[in-house]
């Protein structure tokens, strides 16, 4: 009985998260306590898993490595920004020197470089990135906290779409290897990979908003507003996942234990979805690490075209504005997301394939 | 399975405890709401600190200055706003403003002249580090205060007298001074509010204003809602709400315009103007602005005055504006059309034979003897089209080869300061509608003059002109200055003055279109 419950723990967690996502997609705002509880649940179970599998020293090592990586990224970004030509307050109408001096003083830009660096590093450690130069008086943490939710929503919906479309089509394609179904699915998959977002998104708007008038073209405020951006962002990873799954399933299908399962008389679908699939997900999982980080931090093109108040634009605009604090903020946030999602993916490896030993 | 069922019940339960998110309309009635697109998040609504046009658009609707443009006046004069009347004594060096006494802030506090003094103190205070502090450097001791050389603000030339009037003493005569007071950086402020809320004083729940509209909602990166201020001192706004979306992508915004989701879309892409111009909703209006090429007069061969003249005479501005096809007005003078002091006869006119003569006179009878010439612009589709056109014209009309180079905006600005290219693109939009705002750019002491050119006679004319009261005398001085700049010395080549293109839904009447690009919505009527 207890073993049965244990086996159910992971699917149950996934199910719970799906519930939350569907709620949010339908345009309901969660009470913040539920969000916090869920986060605690996810990290709690992760930590439980880490202890259970005795991964503690492995995790410590990875965290230390990550800290060093982040430190290196922070330093490099800081230096590169100072090398970049053109300063944050250069503009069409040149400012008089006394005004420039006051601004430099306010933002500590007149201090020697090493002082600026140490002040800045102190800020990084305490999660205080200072105030934006462009959005005068707004702390970077406020800007990020306000713009992340839309990006995360968009990212999660697209991610789910990508998995829901990608994995089944990959499995089906593999099971119909080289037959018509395979061909047609892979035709769509290759188109999906080949078509860039900046073509797909305007095409979707043209069709669904302009010609058919079924869906709104932009603004991010409810289920009907989510559909087009999620489609635009999700199809490409869906296509990639479909191709990865197909290749991997084909490989696993040929292995001995699958032949054993079949010879036991199990039905085709049980073999495919119970025995083959779980072991075929390793390449998809590898791909998911950077994908999750990429999708959660938003897509510049999709957010721009559909006017979504997310954080992706800051990646581009902060650089053209030379908004140093904001550049540092988004760079470190993205790096941290990437490192964390890769770490989680590595831990999940051992869940999906117990042969993989983490240590 | 049981577990799944349980979870589903929990999920449903908590869904019912959730609240629905805000809709895009914010519950506003369509017939009472003007829906516009301001493209981006306004960087700051703090009117002492912001410097961009998006913030200014919101500020101009929630706040007011002492005076306002009179767009009905062909010479673009001023009309009273917070000030009832004003006059100058001592040759335009001392200005006295009598303020209205029936103005109240939207929290009920009566407006006084001290609120203006507070605003100016904050603008000039070095710790505010406002980019527009220099706007008031004409006021006595203002720049010293801004540099921190004077700590006591009472030494700065702005006071409230016993009658409650605002008295401003300037460093020297400035006949255009009242025009500066149309700008948001000179608006009054409420120090008590700013002290109480710190940097957060501009959020809707904290901000205190006195304009025709109140700031009701500000959802960052998404939308701003303004609502009619019922305690406004003058005729109340005709349309109850302004809903300003922030939709960055112009093609998306046009789709929203065409499906009726927004009423107004400005900043139309020049490549699509041909199609959009045919729409009945299309409108355009001139803007007091200037698109020009500057030349580095210290970099050979442009140190040679005749080479500069040759290039200036070899460019047909009309060809460029015809190519752009957006209603831009070709110009050879420095002061743009629509502004006092404009004279279309000024400047180096297109004349290929004259251009060739000048080039020969410069010693380059054979144009291939010229050193390599760079023409630089900041990366942008329109700038590129213009640069390529000029490149072709110079080849065709003068036989000289120009290499065009582009750089990203901030790098480009850095380059103009450190190593100005032979020919560079720049623009200017009027801060206030006076020729001084344009001609001052090219004085030897201007930070915006990247040409390395300086001329004492020109500097003197500009300095003298601001102290002259009589309009005709001023006009004459500016004519002389333009002659030096665009005909005798030619460090710059004016190309055209700009236009704003806009789509306005037919249900919107009285949409403000003017040469200063000022968008005050209080007169807008929805049908």
List the helices and strands and how they pair.
The complex is a heterodimer of chains A (359) and B (527).
Chain A: H1 2-25, E1 28-29, H2 32-52, H3 56-83, H4 97-106, H5 113-125, H6 140-175, H7 180-194, H8 197-211, H9 223-253, H10 256-263, H11 268-280, H12 282-296, H13 300-305, H14 312-320, H15 324-352
Chain B: H1 2-17, E1 19-20, E2 33-37, H2 53-62, E3 67-70, E4 77-80, E5 83-89, E6 94-99, H3 113-124, H4 142-147, E7 158-160, E8 166-169, H5 177-180, H6 191-197, E9 213-219, E10 223-228, E11 241-245, H7 250-258, E12 264-266, H8 273-276, E13 282-286, E14 289-295, H9 305-313, H10 317-324, E15 329-330, H11 352-361, E16 373-378, H12 381-398, E17 402-407, H13 409-418, E18 423-429, H14 435-439, H15 456-465, H16 471-489, E19 492-497, E20 499-504, E21 508-509, E22 525-526
Parallel strand pairs in B: 2-11, 16-17, 16-18
Antiparallel strand pairs in B: 3-4, 5-6, 6-8, 7-8, 9-10, 10-11, 12-20, 13-20, 14-18, 14-19, 15-19, 21-22
Helix pairs in contact in B: 9-11, 15-16
Assembly state? heterodimer
> What is the number of helices of chain B?
16
Radius of gyration of chain B, whole Å: 26 Å
Distance from N terminus to C terminus of chain B (CA atoms, Å) equals 59 Å
Major sheet attributes of chain A:
none
Number of strands of chain A: 1
Give the total of beta strands of chain B: 22
Provide the residue-averaged pLDDT of chain B: 91
Portion in helices of chain B = 25-40%
The 3D shape of chain B can be described as globular
**Number of helical regions of chain A:** 15
Strand content range of chain B:
15-25%
Characteristics of this structure?
heterodimer, A: 359 residues, mainly alpha, B: 527 residues, alpha+beta, six-stranded mixed β-sheet, four-stranded mixed β-sheet, globular
Description of the molecule:
The complex is a heterodimer of chains A (359) and B (527). With 359 residues, chain A is mainly α. Chain A has a domain at 1-52. Chain A is 76% helix and 1% strand. Chain A has helices at 2-25, 32-52, 56-83, 97-106, 113-125, 140-175, 180-194, 197-211, 223-253, 256-263, 268-280, 282-296, 300-305, 312-320, 324-352, and one strand at residues 28-29. The longest helix of chain A is centred in the middle third of the chain and has 36 residues, at 140-175. The radius of gyration of chain A is 24 Å and the shape is globular. The model of chain A has no long low-confidence stretch (mean pLDDT 85). The longest helix of chain B has 19 residues, at 471-489. Chain B is globular, with a radius of gyration of 26 Å. In chain B, 47% of the residues are buried. Chain B contains 16 helices and 22 strands. With 527 residues, chain B is an alpha+beta fold. Chain B has a six-stranded mixed sheet with strand order 15-19-14-18-16-17. Classes of the chains: A mainly alpha (359), B alpha+beta (527). Strand 1 (28-29) of chain A pairs antiparallel with strand 1 of chain B.
């Amino acid at each position: 009985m207890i073993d049965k419950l244990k086996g159910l723990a992971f699917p149950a967690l996934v199910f719970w998260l799906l519930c939350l996502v569907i709620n949010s997609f339908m345009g309901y705002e969660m009470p913040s306590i539920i969000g916090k509880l869920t986060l605690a649940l996810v990290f709690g179970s992760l930590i439980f898993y880490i202890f259970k599998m005795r991964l503690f020293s492995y995790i410590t090592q990875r965290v230390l490595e990550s800290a060093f990586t982040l430190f290196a990224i922070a330093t490099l970004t800081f230096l590169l920004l100072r090398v970049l030509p053109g300063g944050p307050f250069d503009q069409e109408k040149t400012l008089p020197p006394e005004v420039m001096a006051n601004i430099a003083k306010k933002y500590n830009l007149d201090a020697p470089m090493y002082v600026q660096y140490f002040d800045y590093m102190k800020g990084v450690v305490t999660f205080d990135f200072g105030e934006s130069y462009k959005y005068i008086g707004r702390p970077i943490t406020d800007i990020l906290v306000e713009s992340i939710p839309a990006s995360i929503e968009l990212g999660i919906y697209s991610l789910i779409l990508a998995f829901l479309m990608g994995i089944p089509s990959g499995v089906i394609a593999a099971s119909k290897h080289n037959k018509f179904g395979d061909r047609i699915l892979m035709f769509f998959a290759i188109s999906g990979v080949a078509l860039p977002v900046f073509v797909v998104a305007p095409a979707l708007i043209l069709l669904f908003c302009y010609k058919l008038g079924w869906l709104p073209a932009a603004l991010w405020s409810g289920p009907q507003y989510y559909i087009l951006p999620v489609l635009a962002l999700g199809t490409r990873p869906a296509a990639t996942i479909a191709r990865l799954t197909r290749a991997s399933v084909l490989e696993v299908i040929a292995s001995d234990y699958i032949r054993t399962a079949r010879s036991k008389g199990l039905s085709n679908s049980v073999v495919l979805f119970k025995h083959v699939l779980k072991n075929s997900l390793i390449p998809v999982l590898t791909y998911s690490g950077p994908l999750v980080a990429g999708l959660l931090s938003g897509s510049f093109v999709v957010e721009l075209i559909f006017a979504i108040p997310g954080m992706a634009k800051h990646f581009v605009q902060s650089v053209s504005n030379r908004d140093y604090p904001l550049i540092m903020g988004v760079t470190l946030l993205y790096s941290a997301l990437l490192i964390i999602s890769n770490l989680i993916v590595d831990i999940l490896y051992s869940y999906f394939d117990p042969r993989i030993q983490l240590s | 399975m049981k577990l799944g069922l349980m979870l589903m019940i929990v999920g449903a339960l908590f869904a019912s405890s959730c609240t629905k998110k805000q809709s895009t309309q914010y519950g506003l009635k369509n017939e009472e709401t003007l829906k516009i697109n301001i493209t981006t998040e306004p960087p700051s609504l703090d009117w002492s600190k912001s410097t961009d046009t998006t913030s200014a658009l919101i500020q101009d609707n929630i706040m007011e200055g002492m005076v306002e443009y009179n767009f009905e006046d062909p010479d673009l004069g001023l009309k009273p706003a917070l000030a009832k009347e004003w006059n100058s004594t001592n040759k335009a060096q001392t200005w006295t403003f009598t303020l209205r006494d029936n103005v109240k802030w939207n929290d009920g506090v009566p407006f006084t002249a001290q609120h203006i003094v507070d605003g100016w103190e904050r603008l000039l205070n070095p710790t505010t580090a406002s980019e527009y502090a220099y706007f008031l450097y004409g006021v006595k001791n203002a720049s010293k205060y801004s540099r921190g050389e004077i700590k006591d603000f009472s030494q700065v030339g702005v006071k409230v007298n016993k009658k409650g009037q605002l008295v401003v003493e300037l460093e020297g005569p400035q006949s255009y001074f009242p025009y500066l007071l149309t700008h948001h950086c000179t608006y009054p402020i409420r120090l008590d509010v700013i002290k109480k809320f710190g940097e957060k004083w501009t959020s809707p729940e904290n901000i205190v204003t006195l304009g025709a509209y109140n700031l009701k909602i500000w959802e960052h990166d998404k939308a701003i809602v303004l609502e009619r201020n019922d305690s406004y001192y003058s005729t109340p706004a005709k349309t109850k709400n302004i809903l300003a979306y922030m939709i960055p992508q112009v093609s998306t915004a046009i789709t929203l315009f065409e499906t009726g989701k927004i009423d107004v879309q400005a900043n139309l892409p020049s490549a699509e103007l041909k199609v959009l111009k045919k729409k009945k909703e299309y409108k355009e209006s001139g803007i007091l602005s200037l698109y020009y090429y500057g030349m580095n007069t210290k970099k050979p061969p442009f140190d040679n005055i005749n080479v500069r003249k040759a290039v200036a005479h070899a460019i047909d501005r009309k060809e460029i504006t015809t190519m752009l096809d957006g209603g831009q007005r070709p110009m050879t003078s420095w002061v743009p059309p629509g502004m006092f002091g404009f004279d279309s006869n000024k400047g180096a006119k297109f004349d290929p034979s004259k251009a060739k003569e000048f080039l020969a006179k410069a010693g380059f009878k054979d144009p291939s003897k010229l050193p390599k010439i760079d023409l630089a612009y900041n990366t942008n589709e329109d700038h590129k089209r213009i640069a390529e056109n000029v490149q072709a014209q110079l080849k065709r009309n003068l036989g000289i080869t120009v290499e065009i180079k582009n750089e990203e905006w901030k790098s480009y600005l850095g380059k103009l300061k450190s190593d100005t290219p032979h020919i560079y693109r720049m623009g200017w939009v009027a801060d206030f509608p006076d020729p001084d705002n344009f001609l001052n750019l090219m004085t030897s002491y201007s930070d915006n003059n990247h040409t390395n050119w300086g001329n004492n006679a020109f500097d003197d004319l500009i300095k003298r002109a601001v102290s002259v009261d009589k309009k005709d005398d001023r006009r004459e001085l500016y004519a002389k200055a333009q002659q030096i700049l665009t005909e005798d010395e030619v460090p710059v080549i004016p190309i055209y003055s700009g236009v704003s293109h806009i789509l306005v839904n037919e249900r919107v009447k009285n949409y403000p279109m003017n040469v200063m690009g000022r968008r005050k919505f209080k007169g807008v009527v929805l049908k």
